[in-house]
Design a protein that fits this description.
0% strand, mainly alpha, YmfJ/YflH_sf, 5 helices
Length: 84
């Protein structure tokens, strides 16, 4: 898990695999995005960025309002799907 959190490419691949698994069990895109938003909130509050990419995401998350954060979550889902 440490490698997943320290290398952004591994993180995107990890997320992509989880998104694909969620779709296989029947979760909708809307539900997956909602979960991504909740995970984003958790990470913002509990996890320090481990690399430059995570630092940028945290800064964007911190300056955004709830709507912006939902957009970031949706875009992360799309990005991760391309890396699965």
């Amino acid at each position: 898990m440490t490698t997943v959190l320290t290398k952004f490419d591994h993180w995107k691949e990890f997320l992509g695999e989880r998104v694909q698994a969620a779709k296989r069990i029947g979760l909708t895109e809307e539900t997956i995005t909602k979960l991504a938003f909740e995970i984003g909130q958790f990470l913002d509050e509990k996890v320090d960025p481990k690399n430059d990419e995570e630092r940028v995401l945290k800064e964007l998350w911190d300056v955004g309002d709830e709507s912006d954060r939902k957009t970031i979550a949706k875009l992360m889902v799309k990005l991760s799907e391309n890396n699965a």
